[in-house]
UniProtKB/TrEMBL annotation:
<feature type="domain" description="N-acetyltransferase">
    <location>
        <begin position="4"/>
        <end position="150"/>
    </location>
</feature>
<keyword id="KW-0012">Acyltransferase</keyword>
<dbReference type="Pfam" id="PF00583">
    <property type="entry name" value="Acetyltransf_1"/>
</dbReference>
<protein>
    <submittedName>
        <fullName>GNAT family N-acetyltransferase</fullName>
    </submittedName>
</protein>
<dbReference type="InterPro" id="IPR050832">
    <property type="entry name" value="Bact_Acetyltransf"/>
</dbReference>
<dbReference type="InterPro" id="IPR016181">
    <property type="entry name" value="Acyl_CoA_acyltransferase"/>
</dbReference>
<dbReference type="InterPro" id="IPR000182">
    <property type="entry name" value="GNAT_dom"/>
</dbReference>
<keyword id="KW-0808">Transferase</keyword>
Length: 150
């Protein structure tokens, strides 16, 4: 993991970020809508937008990404960091890039006074879950999605 550098995404990272983001969307069988790429990239480049990104760099190439944002936790009178997306390129799996991003998020949580870093993953995402189980505690919460009213 010592060769992995985790840093905020930068303007010059657009193409490499898009390649990683495409891989992430492929993993979850999401279609490649160019408008989504443009929208998310604009969010990441807008310092006033809540969504931020870290990238993992290995030997001069981007191999991982993490999109995250703050969220309120009224039950605790605190705020947390929500990790929306975490992806490591298949050829870099096992390099420590995913763990490095999670460790950097834990540092950001500490530095910003957040009470935790939270995320969800697919139940069958066993490769990622082996990393998550090593670094974090699985919760007992069940997740629901409610569609907007028609």
């Amino acid at each position: 993991m010592s060769n992995v550098i985790v840093r905020p995404v930068a303007t010059d990272d657009r193409e490499a970020w898009a390649t990683l983001y495409r891989g992430y969307r492929d993993f979850y069988n999401k279609p490649h809508n160019p408008e989504v790429y443009v929208t998310v990239w604009e969010w990441l480049m807008d310092p006033t937008h809540q969504t931020r990104a870290l990238v993992a760099e290995l030997d001069g190439s981007l191999v991982g990404l993490g999109h995250f944002r703050n969220f309120a936790r009224p039950i605790d009178g605190a705020h947390g960091i929500y990790l929306d997306d975490l992806f490591t390129s298949p050829e870099a799996r096992g390099s420590g890039a995913g763990s490095a991003i999670l460790n950097r998020l834990a540092e950001i949580a500490r530095d910003e006074g957040a009470s935790l870093v939270r995320w969800i993953t697919a139940d069958d995402n066993t490769t990622a879950r082996s990393v998550y189980d090593r670094l974090a505690k699985q919760t007992a919460w069940v997740t629901y999605d409610l569609a907007p009213a028609e």
